[in-house]
Amino acid sequence: MNIQSKSNILALDKVSAFCKHAPVEIQASQEGPLNGLSYGVKDIYDVAGIPTAFGSPAWLKTHPIPSNTATFIQTLSNAGATLVGKTYTDELTYSILGINAHYGTPLNSAAPTRVPGGSSSGSAAAVAAGLVDFAIGSDTGGSVRAPASFCGIYGIRTTHGRISLQHARALARSFDALGWFARDPNTLLQVGEVLFNERAESIQKKPKFFVLKEAFDIIPEAICTTLKKKIASLFHEAPEELSIAPDTLSNWAETFRIVQASEIWQEHGEWATQHLHEFGPGIKERFEIAKSLDPKMIEQALKEKTLIENKIRKLLTQHSNDNTEAVLLLPSTGCIAPLLNSSAMELEGVRKQLFQLLCIAGLGGLPQLNLPVCQYEDAPLGLSLIANTHQDLLLLDIATQFQPVESYR
Question: Beta strand 206-212 with 240-242: parallel, antiparallel or unpaired?
């Protein structure tokens, strides 16, 4: 791809992906494995001398312009990549749909009548539209995985804590993780090799795939059938089914909701109290709910989070051995992107459904990768891979075996 400069990326941006308030360009500092590639970065990551809005005009006007740049940006520059702009995010990243009451909704090129997903909405939209080769996002409760699924692109949430989030705006620190998008799996892998400073050739184990039963049990039957047919076509040998326990995911989602909300209030409550009247619909209400959480409820949820983390990691370890690594197959979202004209009630229903699937990797601190290999009713429908901690590169390598749905390219 020809590198776009900051002077024309906004002119070329017909999907409202790039921040008009923060034009920026950082050229590659030397040649490397990402030579010639362009990328965007979610507007939660600091670039020295450039404002970070965090999806919020209120945040933008009450916080100083950063004096430091997130470390990974220099790493990418040293590898030959050029940053061409900052991308929009949902307000304070506290949403999953890609709708920002202040800055608008980036266009989902794969399904223009539908939301792009969030909160890494601008990064996903930029990649889906072909404006950049890859884009950096973040994932707390699904902010890379959901938009990757909805926009029909590859996207990875990395192992929690593996890549530094210094000089990034936090949402809920025990869940926040860096992630990125690409339209092709080889680019996704190349970015991972740079950021992890590790080559795919170093992978010692082969994957052993398992279909996660409960994840398929909770999605609509027609979508379940579509995904399972796709799995059957992708694998020569049908993967085994693995169960975590009946009726588990709704309880896990509630645990995630409580812990996330409590951490968000702890992180931003004091500031938010002064600016609630400036927040968009949904965001204000979520902050008010977070403020009102019972401390005893939070204490219990934190205990349950530890139990869940141990359980899901142990399950993956038990089904791995010296030669193989367990990899779970599950729906990324279990639905296609909601229509842009959906009611607030309909969108909230989708949001609650999503978290039953998205909470798994979040609670476990696990890497998860969306494969854009399905479609349903002419819209993207993602299939996901989850592996144990620090198996990110294995997932990226697996992804190179699958090609995206051609109609999205």
Answer: parallel
The burial class, CB within 10 Å (0-12 / 13-18 / 19+), for 83 is buried
- CATH numbers and ranges of domains, the chain: 6-200 (3.90.1300.10), 205-394 (3.90.1300.10)
Helix (H, G, I), strand (E, B) or coil at 247: coil
Going across the sheet that includes 82-87, the strands are 82-87, 38-42, 134-139, 177-182, 154-157, 368-376, 379-387, 324-331, 206-212, 240-242
- Tokens for 9? 């990326």
For the stretch 347-357, pLDDT in tens is: 999 999 999 99
pLDDT tens, residue by residue, 202-251: 999 999 999 999 999 999 999 999 999 999 999 988 999 999 877 789 99
Give the catalytic positions in this structure: 42, 119, 143
Return d(Cα 187, Cα 133) in angstroms, integer: 8
Q: What is the pTM of this model?
A: 0.96
**13-33 pLDDT tens trace:** 999 999 999 999 999 999 999
CA distances from 140 to 1, 173, 368 (A): 30, 8, 12
| Listed residue (336, 393, 334, 353) closest to 369, CA to CA | 393
Q: Report yes or no: 52 and 42 within 8 Å, Cβ to Cβ.
A: no
For residue 164, CA distances in Å to 15, 93, 112, 138, 178 come to: 30, 18, 34, 11, 8
CA 189 vs CA 43, 69, 134: distances in Å: 23, 24, 11
Q: Tokens 């959906």, residue?
A: 342
Q: Tell me if 93 sits within 8 A of 169, measured CB to CB.
A: yes
Strands (E), 145-186: 154-157, 177-182
Phi and psi (nearest 5°) for 50? -120, 130
- Who's near 391: CB < 8 A, 6+ residues apart? 159, 325, 327, 367
How is residue 7 annotated by DSSP? Answer: H
